[in-house]
TrEMBL record:
Residues in TRAF-type domain copies: 132-177, 185-243
Keyword field contains Repeat: yes
Biological processes per GO annotation: innate immune response; lipopolysaccharide-mediated signaling pathway; regulation of apoptotic process; regulation of canonical NF-kappaB signal transduction
Lineage of origin: Eukaryota, Metazoa, Echinodermata, Eleutherozoa, Echinozoa
Protein name per Swiss-Prot or TrEMBL: Putative TNF receptor-associated factor 6
Occurrences of domain MATH (ranges): 320-461
Pfam families cross-referenced by the UniProt entry: TRAF-mep_MATH, zf-C3HC4_4, zf-TRAF
Domain of life: Eukaryota
SMART domains: RING
Record carries keyword S-adenosyl-L-methionine: no
Xref: InterPro entries: MATH/TRAF_dom, TNF_rcpt-assoc_TRAF_met, TRAF-like, TRAF1-6_MATH_dom, Znf_RING, Znf_RING/FYVE/PHD, Znf_RING_CS, Znf_TRAF
UniProt keyword annotations, A-Z: Cytoplasm, Metal-binding, Receptor, Repeat, Zinc, Zinc-finger
Zinc finger (TRAF-type): 132-177, 185-243
Residue ranges of domain RING-type in the record: 47-87
Amino acid sequence: MPSQSRNSSTSSVRTARSSRSSKLASVEEKYGFEANFEPSLDKKYTCPVCLAGLREPVQTKCGHRFCRACIKKACGSQAVTKCPIDKIIFDLKTELFEDLAVKREVLSQKVLCVNKERGCSWTAELRYLEEHGDQCEFALVACQNGCGEEFIQQHAELHGKECPLRIISCSYCKENIVHRDLTPHFQVCPRHPVSCSLCGKTDLLREQLKGHLDCDEGDCPDVVVPCSFEEMGCNEQVKRDLLSAHVQDATQHHFQLMVSYTRGLKSQVQSHMDTMRETHEICNQLICEQADLARQITEQNKQIGHQAALLREVQQIGHSGVLYWKVELPSQNYTNPLLSPPFYTSQPGYKFRLCLELRGHVARSETHASLFVMMCRGEYDDQLFFPFGGVCHVTVFNQSHSRAVSSDQHLTTTIECQNLTRAETDNCQTQKRGRLRFMKTDTLIRAPYCLNRELFIRADMATFCASA
Ligand SMILES: [Zn+2]
Ligand SMILES: [Zn+2]
Ligand SMILES: [Zn+2]
Ligand SMILES: [Zn+2]
Ligand SMILES: [Zn+2]
Ligand SMILES: [Zn+2]
Ligand SMILES: [Zn+2]
């Protein structure tokens, strides 16, 4: 039979325990059954297109049977088509019928397992073939570890114990290792037993070997260690076993080494102390220098402050012999003297201030205000002649805005300033001239001279020829 010969030439290899995937594949539309029918399949159950057993058989109106998939493939997508056997035209939708009777008969045919040649003796109706195929112990499977080996399902367990790529646990360190890599692993496994190459001790694990051979902490009697007096200069190296014998034998030598070592230490300590003393002295010197510098900086800051004040004064002070003074009355106490900003008679010139005492000079008069012109210590005094002689015209402005104020409505007075000598301070009480009873306080602190608690006073200083 053609169907049988074809089948025996194809061998299906699946991965062990992969029956689920083959079941999914059977959902796709398939052509005829290719199976080992026993006895051979009657020709009436054979599809004339695929020459295999009819699968999902359908019948045309001309009475020919095909697998459903085969006739669909032969007719393509056309709705009206021809029978492949006798070319009779039929409608694919309305003139093609499912043949349930033949379907049942085909599925009832006896078949043998496809793995018969590998020893499977299974035989049953065709309808059970796919189900058996998934479970057949003689189906060919590939090793799931990927070693490339193929074997029948029955031998899968056996191969699992022999596969070179199987995973096993190292019996020493319990790590999971591919069996093929086990021998190389033993060369590095930390828990693998080793023996000491020096003393021959055998019950050691690889991870303990380093500790066993350690010069300080180890216990290998044959490891070579330096003498305990190495730091003091003994260069002897002996097996650990012989160390105590060496220490005993070389007592004299070790003692001499210790003496010179101690001497060396003593001189080192001395030299360190010398260095520390020097450092200490340098530190003290630096501290002194720093204090000096700080003093200098403070002094310079003071000078800078003084210069800045002078500069401000020079920028603000008038140098024309004229002063305009806005006097703000204090809120309560009228006994303190009020000092005007300074002004110069010229540049270079003499420096003056006005001084207004609302309750009289040192409160001598409670009713009248005193007014003075006061010589101050000036920047140009070195270039000037003293004593000074001049006259100062003082004006207290009438601030009435009701009508134009003519000059005779302001309050004026002239103060003789004769024989004023050089002032030693900026607020010199001795070098001043003025009026003890300048005017009545009550008049001065009210309108029209005082508005919004403010007075406006002008001073014009005329200098006589100073005596040479
Ligand atoms: Zn077919
Ligand atoms: Zn036909
Ligand atoms: Zn089988
Ligand atoms: Zn394998
Ligand atoms: Zn291991
Ligand atoms: Zn050892
Ligand atoms: Zn020694």
